Amino acid sequence: MQPSDYSALLIEPGDVGPDATSPDKPVLNPNGVPGVAQLFASPDGSRRLGDTILVFADPAAAATGLENAKASMGSEVTGAPQPIDVGSNGTMIAGNSPDNSKAVTVVMFTEGRALVNLQFESTPNDPIVPEAALEIAQKQGAAVKDGLPG
Q1: For the chain, which ranges sit under pLDDT 70?
Q2: Phi/psi at 76 (5° precision)
Q3: Most buried of 16, 20, 45, 91 (most Cβ within 10 A)?
Q4: Helix, strand or coil for residue 33?
Q5: pTM score > 0.85 for this model?
């Protein structure tokens, strides 16, 4: 069976911000896992969003994937996980990278059998506003909910 092209599940650059672009094509099946990944960036590259959607066999497998992803976030961001209202088991972690070279906000949640991971990065003194991260996450959640085949 051929892997599916899940790129239709991605939000558009305009959903990220008025000047956001997607400089590269979506990566299908990142790290050999069914799904899609896309990078969005500001024109000067100072703000970036890595959007990864992994598609599992069922919602229980997606939930397990989410727990595993949350457990490994210490290598990416120094903040503490906080629950947020997006998808199922929505979690936001905001802080700096461990080396303090950038501000990092990660939003993770499941939507059905999909695991969504949004990683916002910017300069250390210019983190994304939590409400903006949540709004983008809700748009991504709606796109997955509407577009993911059962």
Answers
A1: 1-3, 150
A2: -110, -40
A3: 16
A4: coil
A5: yes
Residue 46 token pair: 């100072």
What span, in angstroms and rounded, lies between the C-alpha atoms of 135 and 96?
A: 21
Does 39-147 carry CATH code 3.40.1000? yes
Q: Which of 40, 106, 19, 31 is nearest to 69 (CA)?
A: 106
Q: Which two tokens stand for residue 25?
A: 């094509």
Write down the residue that tokens 């069922």 correspond to.
58
Mean per-residue pLDDT of the chain: 93
DSSP for 74-111? GGT--SPPEE-SSSEEEEEEEEE-TTSSSEEEEEEEEE
CA atoms within 13 A on the CB side of 103: 16
Domains of the chain by residue range: 39-147
> What are the φ and ψ backbone dihedral angles of 7, each rounded to 5 degrees?
-65, -25
| Dist CA 144 CA 149 (whole Å) | 9
Are 137 and 86 in contact by the 8 Å Cβ rule? The answer is yes
Taking the C-alpha atoms of residue 21 and residue 24, their distance in angstroms, rounded to an integer, is 9
Q: How do residues 51-86 score in pLDDT, each as one tens digit?
A: 999 999 999 999 999 999 998 888 889 989 999 999
